Amino acid sequence: MVEKEPVGELDPRFSSEGATAIEWAQAREHLVDAEVYWLSTVRPEGRPHVTPLLALWHDDMLYFCTGPTERKARNLAANAHCVLTTGSNMLNKGLDLVVEGEAVQVDDDGRLRRIAAAYESKYGSDWHFEVRDGVFHNAAGGTALVYEVAPTTIFGFAKGEYGQTRWRFSA
Asked: Any bridge partners for residue 97, and if so which?
């Protein structure tokens, strides 16, 4: 969990004249409200893998889930470094966010119940999970591993009046 709010640093090399750093509260709100994220992982032979998924910004961490045999789970088993992105595909408006960190599997049933409740609250009853034995269980009988990503760095890319802001987090 982030102990204090990070301070945004504007990079003038990639920002419009007169741009200001994005406030952390605005970036956090975008992380909370985003419905679709893109997860980038690395395959064992070094090739990149990118896939869309649902995720939560909850308690200053990003959470996502995936089946234990899916490519992203297998990639994370070999290399926990990952990037999650979210934003707008509009050129001149919106805010894109890039979250860098390491994915750590969550297997504590108590924490998983809180995360499951947050998923259902955000995405609706189609995303209801039962929790047991350290994993999510869905109505179709499938299981999902849950990962937590504590951010090391987050980049924000404002559009229109372009500005690149970086927030750094302590480990």
From this structure: 86, 156
- Tell me how far apart the terminal alpha carbons of the chain are, to the nearest angstrom: 10
Report the alpha-carbon distance of residue 144 to residue 65 in Å, rounded. 6
The mean pLDDT of 79-88, rounded to a whole number, is: 96
Cα–Cα distance for residue pair 165/128, rounded to 1 Å: 35
Determine the CATH number of domain 9-168.
2.30.110.10
- Helix locations, 13-168, DSSP H: 24-33, 71-78, 109-123
Q: Report yes or no: 57 and 28 within 8 Å, Cβ to Cβ.
A: yes
- ∠ CA 49-101-142, nearest 5°, is 55
**pLDDT tens figures, 33-54:** 999 999 999 999 999 999 999 9
